[in-house]
C-alpha cells in the first residue's frame, strides 16, 4: 500500500496534540484520517492513560474502519481494536482503540458524563455535520474545561470549514494534511438528462469502451436506483461483443448491504478488469474506494427532512452542495489523473447548488437530543442556548419540548422527570422508550420489546426490494392469528411470535419471505433491550421471552394502550366527511393510512376513530406508516395535555428560544416513491 499522506505529518500532529487540548485536522478524503490518526496517537503513548475513541456518523464506516485498523495492527477485531454501534458492541477489556458511532458515544456520556475512560476523543467526519456529532462538539467543548489536563480532542474534516470549527473551539490550531490529489478533468453535461439512470448507463458504457483502465464510481441516490443500474449495466456489458473490452465487475455500495457485500469494494480487481462501483453518497467521504479514475455524478442526494410544524418526515431527492460535488470529483484523482462526468450543466452548479449542505440539526426532529441534553443536568448551561456550531430553528426546539411534555419526559415547566431520565438511557426514540415503560406497568413488556425490536430492524426484515415487499407485508404469507387488524404493530408482534413458536427456524423465515439476517437482528436487539430494561429496573422485571401467550384481545389491548401513551405526539383522528385522518397537536392536516398497513375497518366498513402512528411520511401524499388503533378513553388525557400546553413555560419561562435566521433549503427534485421506509444508516 502506498504511504498515506497523513503519515508524513506524524511528528507535527503529535507535537500539536501535545501542546493543545483541541486540534482540528483537515485532510482530503483518503488521506488516512480515520485509519491512521488513532494509530499515530497509539504509537505515541496515548493509549497508556485511556482508550482512544473515534466517532463516525455512519455505522458502516465505524465497522469498516475498525476492521481495517485491526488488520493493519494485525490484531483480532474486537480485542485491541474494536467497534460499538447501536445494538452491536465488539469491544473487550483489552480494547484500546475503539471506533463507534457518534450516537453511541452520546449515550455513553449519560452514564459517564466526563468520559473518563477515554484519553483521546476523535470526532471524525465532522464535515458530515450529523446531528449527534454537532451535539458532541458542544459537549466536548465543555469537557475540555473539566478535563483539560488529561483529555485530547481532535476534530477531523475533509472539507475546508476548519476556520469555523477552530473559532468554535477558541481558535484552536488547524492542521492541514494536503492530499496528493492528481488533477481531475471536470466534464459537465450540456443539459440535465431526462433519465438519470439512462444517462449514467450511457456514460459508464462510453468510459468502458473508450477510456483506458481505471475503476468507475457512480453516485446515485439510493438502493432502488443502485439495484436498477447494476442490473442495466450487467445486461449492457454482457451484450458488448466479447473480447472488445476488458472484463468488468459491477458492485453496489450502500448502507443496507450485508457487511460481506460491503467489503467487496475493498478487494482490488483482477488484472485487465474494470470495476464499476454504484454507490450512494456513502463513497463521497465515509468510505474510500481505491482505484477509482472515473466518477459519474448525477448531482443528487437523498435527504431526510423533518418538518416541525407538521411532524412530517420526507425523504427528498435534493441537489448536492458545491462542497459535495467537489468531494465526489476528488474521488477520481487519488491514484492518477482522472475524469469526473457531471450530469448537470456548469451553470446549474454555479447558480443553483448551495455552497455547503444543510446540517442535520436543521432538518431533524430534536426530541431525542433535547431529552439527552436535559438528562445531563448541565446546570451551567441553559439547554436552549446550548452552544451549537449552527443553532437549530426555534420551531424545532419548541416541537421537541412539546413532544417530550406529551410523553411525560419533562414537566410543564420544562424540567426533566424521572420518566424522562429512564427514557434517555434507552437507545431508542423517546416515543418507543415511553411505550416500553408504560407496557411494563400493564404487564405486556415482553410483547412491547418485540414490537420495538421489530421496528428497529424494519428496513432489513423483508426479502427483496422495498416496494414489492411492502405489498407482501399487506398479505403476509405468515398465517397469523386474529388481531392483526388492530394494526401494524400487532402484526409485527405476531410475526415474531410465530417465529418463536417455530423455534427460530431459519427455513421458516425463508418460507415466509423474511430476511434471516433481519430476524436474527430483531432477536438480538430484543434481548439487549430486555437486558437494559432489567438493568434500569435493577433486575426486578419479568421479561421472559416465552411469556405465556395470552393471544386474546385483552392482551393486545394493553399493548395498544401502551403504544398510545408512547405515541402521544403521533396521534390522528378520523375525519368524518373525508376519507382519512387529521393529525392532532400539529398544524392540522389530512393524512392517509399507508397502503401497506394491515389496519382493518370494522364489519360496517368504518376505520377506528383514533390511531397512533410510528411515522408520518410525505411521499406522493402524506401517509402514516405503522399504524395502531387506539381508544377514545386513552386519547382524552393527551387532548387535555395539549389544551394546557404552554411552550413558553416549557422552554423555562426566562429562557426564550431565539429565532434564528431562516434556514436555507435546497431545491427538491421529487418526493420519494410510495412505500419506502426511511432508511437509517446512522448509529
Ligand atoms: P480518510 O479518513 O482520510 O478519508 P481513511 O483513513 O478512511 O482516510 O482511508 C485511508 C486508506 O485506507 C484508503 O486508501 C482506504 O482505501 C483504505 N481503507 C480504509 N478502510 C478500509 C477497509 N475497510 N479495507 C481496506 N482498505 C481500507
From TrEMBL:
Any one Gene Ontology molecular-function term assigned to this protein's record: ATP binding
- Under which EC number(s) is this enzyme classified? 3.6.4.13
Q: Which reaction does it catalyse?
A: ATP + H2O = ADP + phosphate + H(+)
Helicase C-terminal domain sequence ranges:
204-377
Q: Ranges for the Helicase ATP-binding domain?
A: 14-178
Positions of transmembrane segments:
none
| Any Pfam family the entry gives | Helicase_C
Q: What is this protein called?
A: RNA helicase
Species assigned in the record: Acer saccharum
Amino acid at each position: 500500500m502506498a504511504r498515506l499522506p497523513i503519515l508524513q505529518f506524524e511528528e507535527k500532529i503529535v507535537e500539536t496534540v501535545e501542546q493543545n487540548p483541541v486540534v482540528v485536522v483537515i485532510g482530503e478524503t483518503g488521506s488516512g484520517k480515520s485509519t491512521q490518526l488513532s494509530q499515530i496517537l497509539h504509537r505515541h503513548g496515548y493509549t497508556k492513560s485511556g482508550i482512544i475513541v473515534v466517532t463516525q456518523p455512519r455505522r458502516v464506516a465505524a465497522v469498516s474502519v475498525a476492521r481495517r485498523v485491526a488488520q493493519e495492527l494485525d490484531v483480532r477485531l474486537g480485542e485491541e481494536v474494536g467497534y460499538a454501534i447501536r445494538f452491536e458492541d465488539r469491544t473487550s477489556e483489552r480494547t484500546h482503540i475503539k471506533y463507534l458511532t457518534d450516537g453511541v458515544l452520546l449515550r455513553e456520556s449519560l452514564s459517564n458524563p466526563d468520559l473518563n475512560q477515554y484519553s483521546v476523543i476523535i470526532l471524525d467526519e465532522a464535515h458530515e455535520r450529523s446531528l449527534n456529532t454537532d451535539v458532541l462538539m458542544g459537549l466536548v467543548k465543555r469537557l475540555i474545561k473539566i478535563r483539560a489536563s488529561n483529555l485530547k480532542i481532535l476534530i477531523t474534516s475533509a472539507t475546508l470549514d476548519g476556520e469555523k470549527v477552530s473559532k468554535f473551539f477558541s481558535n484552536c490550531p488547524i492542521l492541514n494534511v494536503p492530499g496528493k490529489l492528481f488533477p481531475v478533468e471536470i466534464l459537465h453535461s450540456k443539459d440535465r438528462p431526462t433519465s438519470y439512470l439512462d444517462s449514467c448507463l450511457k456514460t459508464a458504457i462510453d468510459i468502458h469502451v473508450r477510456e483506458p483502465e481505471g475503476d468507475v464510481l457512480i453516485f446515485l441516490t439510493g438502493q432502488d436506483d443502485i439495484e436498477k443500474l447494476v442490473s442495466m449495466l450487467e445486461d449492457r456489458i454482457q451484450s458488448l461483443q466479447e473480447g472488445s473490452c476488458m472484463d468488468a465487475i459491477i458492485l453496489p455500495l450502500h448502507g443496507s448491504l450485508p457487511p460481506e457485500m460491503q467489503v467487496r469494494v475493498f478487494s482490488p480487481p483482477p488484472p485487465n478488469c474494470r470495476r464499476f462501483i454504484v454507490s450512494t453518497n456513502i463513497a463521497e467521504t465515509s468510505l474510500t474506494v481505491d482505484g477509482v479514475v472515473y466518477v459519474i455524478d448525477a448531482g443528487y442526494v437523498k435527504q431526510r427532512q423533518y418538518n416541525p410544524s407538521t411532524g412530517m418526515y420526507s425523504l427528498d431527492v435534493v441537489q448536492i452542495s458545491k462542497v459535495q460535488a467537489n468531494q465526489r470529483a476528488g474521488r477520481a484523482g487519488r491514484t492518477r489523473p482522472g475524469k469526473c462526468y457531471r450530469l448537470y450543466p456548469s451553470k446549474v452548479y454555479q447558480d443553483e447548488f448551495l455552497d455547503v449542505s444543510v446540517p442535520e440539526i436543521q432538518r431533524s426532529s430534536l426530541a431525542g437530543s433535547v431529552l439527552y441534553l436535559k438528562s445531563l443536568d448541565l446546570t451551567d448551561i441553559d439547554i436552549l442556548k446550548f452552544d451549537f456550531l449552527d443553532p437549530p430553528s426555534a420551531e424545532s426546539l419548541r416541537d421537541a419540548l412539546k413532544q417530550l411534555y406529551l410523553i411525560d419526559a419533562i414537566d410543564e415547566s420544562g424540567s426533566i422527570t424521572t420518566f424522562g431520565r429512564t427514557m434517555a438511557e434507552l437507545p431508542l426514540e423517546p416515543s418507543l422508550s415511553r411505550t416500553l415503560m408504560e407496557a411494563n406497568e400493564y404487564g405486556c413488556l415482553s410483547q412491547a420489546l418485540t414490537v420495538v425490536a421489530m421496528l428497529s430492524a424494519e428496513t432489513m426484515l423483508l426479502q427483496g426490494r422495498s416496494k414489492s415487499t411492502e405489498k407482501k407485508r399487506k398479505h403476509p404469507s405468515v398465517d397469523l392469528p386474529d388481531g392483526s387488524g388492530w394494526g401494524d404493530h400487532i402484526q409485527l408482534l405476531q410475526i415474531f411470535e410465530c417465529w418463536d413458536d417455530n423455534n427460530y427456524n431459519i427455513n421458516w423465515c425463508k418460507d415466509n419471505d423474511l430476511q434471516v439476517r433481519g430476524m436474527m437482528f430483531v432477536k438480538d436487539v430484543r434481548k439487549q433491550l430486555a437486558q437494559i430494561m432489567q438493568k434500569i429496573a435493577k433486575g426486578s422485571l419479568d421479561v421472559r421471552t416465552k411469556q405465556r401467550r395470552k393471544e386474546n384481545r385483552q392482551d393486545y389491548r394493553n399493548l395498544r394502550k401502551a403504544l398510545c401513551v408512547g405515541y402521544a405526539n403521533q396521534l390522528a383522528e378520523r375525519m368524518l366527511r373525508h376519507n382519512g385522518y387529521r393529525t392532532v397537536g400539529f398544524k392540522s392536516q389530512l393524512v392517509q393510512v399507508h397502503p401497506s398497513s394491515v389496519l382493518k375497518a370494522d364489519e360496517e366498513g368504518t376505520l377506528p376513530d383514533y390511531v397512533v402512528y410510528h411515522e408520518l411520511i410525505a411521499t406522493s401524499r402524506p401517509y402514516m406508516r405503522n399504524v395502531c388503533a387506539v381508544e377514545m378513553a386513552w386519547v382524552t388525557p393527551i387532548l387535555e395535555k395539549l389544551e394546557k400546553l404552554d411552550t413558553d413555560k416549557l422552554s423555562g419561562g426566562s429562557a426564550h428560544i431565539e429565532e434564528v435566521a431562516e434556514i436555507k433549503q435546497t431545491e427538491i427534485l421529487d418526493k420519494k416513491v410510495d412505500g419506502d421506509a426511511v432508511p437509517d444508516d446512522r448509529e
